[in-house]
Amino acid sequence: MSNSSFTNVTVAGGTGALGFNIAEALLNDGSFTVKVLRRMPETPNDKADLLASKGAEIVYADYNQHDHLVKALNGTDALISVVSPGRTGSYDFDALQTPLLDAAKAAGVKRFIPSEFGIDYKVGDHPINDTKASFREKVVNSGLEYTIILCGLFAEYLGVLYDIKNKTAKFYADGSTELAVIALSDIGKYTAESLKLEESRNATIRVAGSRLSLNEILEKFEEATGSKWEVVVDKEVKHRFQNKIDPVPSPMDLYISVVLERASFENIDNDKFSFSPRPLVDVINVLVQMASI
Ligand SMILES: NC(=O)c1ccc[n+]([C@@H]2O[C@H](COP(=O)([O-])OP(=O)(O)OC[C@H]3O[C@@H](n4cnc5c(N)ncnc54)[C@H](OP(=O)(O)O)[C@@H]3O)[C@@H](O)[C@H]2O)c1
Q1: Spatial contact of 11 and 188, defined as CB atoms under 8 Å apart
Q2: Does any ligand 1 atom lie closer than 6 A to the CB of residue 157?
Q3: Where does the NmrA-like domain lie (predicted)?
Q4: From the CA of 6, how far away is ligand 1's center (Å)?
């Protein structure tokens, strides 16, 4: 592990679910000056306030105005994009991030980390991932250094498969299907430390908190709740979605079923990093506690 040649790091989307954890990990590391890039207009945001109280500079830009973005990125060595258009109903990661990449080039940014943070998707799997793939190609060909960080499923989001309140698990694949799962705080730490890692230059880095089957994760939920769960297996999601067969799955059901096909990594890079990730059971216990409030 070398010292980072990236002192000034900007996190675009640092107020988001993952972006906050990445910005916080950079600040906790102590070797970086951290800027959080937000969209104009300025809006109150608790996470931005918290990051500012820990030393981050909060900057605003209009993503549609190249000069605005370039000005906001001036002095940045590494730009970590953790933006997501999801909450607006659009899932075009390419359209959202292209202005950022163009501005990064103009501002002399050395390394770009795109908003990936998911699975080993293949082109054609799903339109959302196709927009990530087309943007990834732009990043790889941009002339900037890059790191693609893949981390499997966010552990805090396991509720999409495991319904704690109703003690029901919905699997879109065989129970033996293995998943890479990771806590948000660990993705933050891996991302921050990747900036100090020789092997992350122009590379894909795969990290995971644990790699367990759907059934093994179910056992952990059963232990944490002290009860036996019901399991519903639905493997026909893609077929029903494509052929509009009742009950027609929602686009989110389809997306989750696609994620499950690709959410396991053969090789992971955890041993290149200086720390061990949190055990999954820690996050599961927190989820169970939260569900009982
Ligand atoms: N592996 C997994 O299980 C998993 C799960 C969820 C997400 N992800 C991935 O993780 C990444 C981050 O997702 P997230 O859920 O953390 O994101 P998020 O919380 O939905 O949003 C992140 C930030 O993006 C900015 N943003 C939102 N809409 C925007 C727009 N239209 N234009 C520009 N900026 C916009 C906002 O920041 P400001 O308002 O401050 O500008 C927001 O706080 C994405 O790549 C996503 O696909 C992976």
Answers
A1: no
A2: yes
A3: 8-240
A4: 23
